[in-house]
Amino acid sequence: MTPRTVLPRHDVADLALADAGARRVEWAGREMPVLRAIRERLASERPFRGVRIAACLHVTTETANLALALRDGGAEVALCASNPLSTQDDAAAALVAREGVSVFARKGEDRDTYYRHIGAVLETKPVLTMDDGADVVTILHTERRELLPGVRGGTEETTTGVIRLRAMASEGVLAYPIIAVNEARTKHMFDNQYGTGQSAIDGLMRATNVLIAGKTAVVCGYGWVGRGVASRLRGMGAIVVVCEVDPLRGLEAAMDGFQVMSVALAAKRGDLFFTATGNLNVIGRDHFCLMKDGAILANVGHFNDEIELGGLAELAKSRREIRPFVEEFQLADKKLYVLAEGRLLNHAAAEANPAAVMDMSFANQALSLEYLLAHGNDLGPQVYAVPPELDEEIARRKLDAMGMQIDTLTPAQVEYARSWKAGT
Ligand code: NAI
Predict the structure, then answer these.
(1) Whole-angstrom Cα distance, residue 350 to residue 340?
(2) CA 296 to CA 325: how far, in whole Å?
(3) What is residue 206's DSSP assignment?
């Protein structure tokens, strides 16, 4: 990779970070063998030749590897951030200065800049979109409707985005087909669970350096992300409490050995709180009043509205940043600490999910985009699953890359599994 003299359109924090970023992009790529194999094939077949792709994803070293795979496949990729705090400025610089990919993202950008960057990506008049939280789709369907006829399809990376898109489809307002990458088993079972489970702890430790062992940690939401966070906290020696609204998930948490209780009860006990629900005001004003002095609150759900920060600000007599990504709220009787402004802790304070899981998430992205390019015109404006054969192929390749083999059913086993006649 050599520095470029002509740069693509961009708005990044500091191009001088490009060398460091390029080394970290390479490091992440080591752990992404499935995506690497797809990249090699795309580079030889070039199915995306001249196809404009607008990507609104967390701008990380792993996302850089995805962008390069698509670029090598012939695509013109323009990338912006899917969260104001998740951009890795060095990865953004490397993409622009070393690879010629358009990037509009700066870590810590304000709300106006965030949306201006989405606008800049849409200026490319995309044929395909990639979202993480459905912000590009939302802007396309509200402010930039004139671009909709040119879009053949899109993908969505996360649970919260898929919920928004399904709501659009059921109201009949979605204008083009979207593949819900999050719903691939090779995505949510690994990225949401093992990836976020690990990186949330990483974010907590980098932001606070607190000892986890012996603390009471409360996890709100026992979905894919919550399961991962709860099990990793237990592994670090925390006493883990789970809060749920779904009785089956609550029961599952109980039988996994966690204490299950309401947020109101857990509020009195917790030293550490994590929200992972995709929902609103899960920890709110009443709960803050019940909490112990010194409690630490963090969110790993997609949006920064799981902890009711407005209510906390109103209760607080003063607030200050005590360490990077740690804000102290002084209430009448106690101090509470909020990490990373209530935004995705693992992205803001750490390095997001490890490359080994993003390998599968982004293999799903690349193959789903290729599928949409081939079939998008025949699909109605609905939310679709990743074709199961692609999901299985990714799992198979990942196992291969990990040096593990599984067995294949014999013809007799296939027949047995299909028949209803065999018994004792
Ligand atoms: P999920 O749908 O599997 O789980 C969410 C759980 O929260 C459900 O069991 C639901 O019953 C529960 N819940 C909803 N409202 C609640 C409330 N008021 N109190 C307690 N529990 C409540 O979703 P998943 O995949 O676990 O994702 C959760 C969030 O994390 C989403 O916003 C998703 O977009 C985000 N996410 C973040 C990642 C990251 O890197 N930080 C990675 C993947 C997903």
Answers:
(1) 10
(2) 12
(3) H
Cα 220 to Cα 260, 266, 278, 281, 286, distances in angstroms? 10, 10, 10, 11, 16
Does ligand 1 lie within 6 Å of residue 346's CB atom?
yes
Residue 183 to residue 45: CA distance in whole angstroms: 27
Using CA atoms, how far apart are residues 134 and 357, in angstroms rounded to an integer? Answer: 21
For the chain, the straight-line distance linking the first and the last C-alpha, in angstroms and rounded, comes to 65
344 lines ligand 1 (CB under 6 A): yes
Indicate whether residue 65 lines ligand 1 (CB < 6 A): no
Q: Is 225 in the pocket of ligand 1 (CB under 6 A)?
A: yes
Atom of ligand 1 nearest to the CA of 352: 40
- State the Cα–Cα distance between residues 224 and 164, nearest whole angstrom: 18
Count, residues in the chain:
424
Beta bridge partner(s), residue 52: 76
Each residue of 365-374: pLDDT tens digit? 999 999 999 9
pTM confidence score: 0.94
Exposure on the CB side of residue 257, measured as CA atoms within 13 A: 7
- The whole-number pLDDT of residue 122 equals 98
| pLDDT confidence bin for 292, thresholds 50/70/90 | very high
Q: Where are the alpha helices (DSSP H) in 184-317?
A: 185-187, 196-208, 224-235, 247-255, 263-269, 285-290, 309-315
Task: From 192, 194, 299, give the residue whose CB has the most ligand 1 atoms within 8 Å, as the site to mutate.
Answer: 192
* Mean pLDDT confidence for 296-314: 97
Ligand 1 atom having least distance to the Cα of 225: 26
Q: Ligand 1: distance of its center to the CA of 159 in Å?
A: 7
Alpha-carbon distances of 109 from 87, 97, 138, 174, rounded to whole Å: 9, 20, 20, 29
Look at ligand 1, atom 12, and give the residue with the nearest C-alpha: 221
